[in-house]
Design a protein that fits this description.
Helices cover 44% and strands 15% of the residues. By secondary structure, the chain is of the alpha/beta class. A six-stranded mixed sheet has the order 1-2-10-7-8-9, sandwiched between helices. A four-stranded parallel sheet has the order 5-4-3-6, sandwiched between helices. α5 links the parallel β3 and β4. The longest helix is centred in the middle third of the chain and has 17 residues.
Length: 336
Amino acid sequence: MRIVTDKQTSTSAATVKIGDLPVTIRDVWAAKLRISSMIWRTSLLPTATLSRMTDTNLRIKTENLQRTCSFKFRGGLNAVLQLTPAQRERGVCTFSAGNHGQGLAYAAQLSGVHCTVFMARDANPQKIEAIRGYGADLIFGDSIGDASDRMEIFQQETGATYISPYGDPAVIAGQGTIGLELLEDFPELEYVVLGIGGGGLASGVALAIKSIRPEVKIIGVEPEGAPTLTRSLEEGRPVRLESIKTIADGLGAPYALPIPLEIIKTLLDDVVLVDDEMLADAMRLLLSRCKLLVEPAGAASVAALLNRKIDIPKGANTVAILSGGNIDMEKLKALL
């Protein structure tokens, strides 16, 4: 399914003024210097099995093995490390399906900053307990959208600094450090495939890579049950979903935000959709053949490749980002 088709919104990175975007490659380089001593540089692993099954020369970026088991720690840490003394005193807050909450809570703990995370009542129990373990306060809403609304009221009443899961420029720059690592570790890179929730990872990685190698293709993957960016690209504005129904809770952003949407519509080459069955199949395959445990959201990139959702030349040098590995054990048993 081709989403970015209008020439005005799919402009080649070779002609677009990347420096005019709300986040720049300088921000990404600064983030790398700021966080590199505290994050883990995750492996980029070749896989003969998945290369054969996808007809590509495929490598997988194991952000499921990052600290807090998700790429989200990069962006949360970059944002927390830039807080002013006054902001540190008032603390930080956010809403999250779980991975951003964990990343921000851990970054705040390491920095001695109080953190409050708002989540849906039915959120992944493992993610809830991990956030508590990092010392954050938790407040629940009836849904992820309701949690976001409650968080806004809390932020206005307390003066805590809101750090968006995907709309904060510091968060986007932090996620963009993955793109720099990919170019360093795989100079022959031609395609990058990654999951999209709110677009923080996609916008950061696209910005980093396209600023240096504009010919590299960046493809985003969304669940059919949470097509937040797909709808927003179609309508040309940030859209809020009325409902979300997918096993990939990490890709269930309730609404789009202007900054990642602007970067994505400018720099991404395509956005495709996968269903829950494809996500579960890819998750099982990664566990059985690559011995890597990922959550459904983390398997989105591989799901799109396995199901030929992306038009990639045979043998192309490709990276699939495994974005997270935080899955509830009961859900894991059911999916297996």
